[in-house]
Amino acid sequence: MTAYWFEGGVEDVEDAVEGLRNEAPEEAADLPSLAVESGVFTDEEHYYNRLHEATLEHARRRIEELEPEDSAVVHAVRTLDELDDAGGRLRQRVEDWRGDSEPVAEAEDVVDAVEDAREELRERVEREVRDVAPNLSKIAGPLLAARLIAEAGGLDSLAKMPSGTLQVLGAEDALFRHLQDGTPPPKHGLIYLHPYVHETTPEHRGSAARCLAGKLSIAARVDRYSGDLRPELKEELDMKIQEIQSRGEGG
């Protein structure tokens, strides 16, 4: 027997959405007339109104189901940056305002609340990115891994990115100046935050950045297409960076 979306009842939108998920009509039928004849709807207008509600809700849920896992990381990192900016501005405003004790105390409470929210969000970002990108997190550290994913627009985009592009990701302004004005090209972007880059002497920093970017690219691809943790990636990186940094020692 043909199952129509309204046969289980449509007391609320949940019933209607479930019906749409399970509907599998075997042949064409005049559904509005059948729906009214079944007694589920008072008239065809009632039928179309509920169908409209259910279709929109069904589509929204399908979009959520298809949304990549890393989208939460992207949104969370962007919110984290906004909280950083807001917290910094508020803290500076409070410092400039000191002298009127009561309003300053109230403002400090607001700043403290923003900073608490930022810390909770940072912890959440670190937890989620370890699940989404374990190898990237292991090599870059969870917060830098999350920022790379967000800057790229998602793990899929990051995994498809050449290592040279990843290396300067986040340095778009400097790259634009290089292309427009002929200034020296940037050697690194966000990955400068990694100790393997900023703790390497300037003359060898470019080599360290290229090495790190190469391993991060591999890690992003492994995370995107297989998801298994490969400790050897970081071990290989550690050895290579040690070799690069040792060039500036001695003598």
Report the order of strands and helices: HHHHHHHHHHHHH
- Could you give the count of β-strands? 0
Q: pLDDT under 50 segments (min length 5)? A: 24-28
The CATH class of the largest domain is Mainly Alpha
Helix content: over 70%
Number of helices: 13
What is the CATH architecture term of the largest domain? Orthogonal Bundle
What is the CA–CA distance across the termini?
Answer: 87 Å
Report the major sheet: none
Could you report the average pLDDT, rounded to the nearest whole number? 80
Rg (C-alpha, Å): 27 Å
The CATH topology annotation of the largest domain reads as Serum Albumin, Chain A, Domain 1
Structure description:
This protein has 251 residues and is mostly helical. The protein has two domains: 13-66; 71-246, Serum Albumin, Chain A, Domain 1, CATH 1.10.246.90. 72% of the residues lie in helices and 0% in strands. It contains 13 helices and no strands. α5 crosses α6 and α12 (202-225) runs antiparallel to α13. Mean pLDDT is 80; it is low at 24-28.
How do the strands and helices of this protein lay out in sequence?
Blueprint: H1 13-22, H2 31-37, H3 44-66, H4 71-97, H5 101-132, H6 134-140, H7 142-152, H8 155-159, H9 163-167, H10 172-181, H11 195-198, H12 202-225, H13 231-246
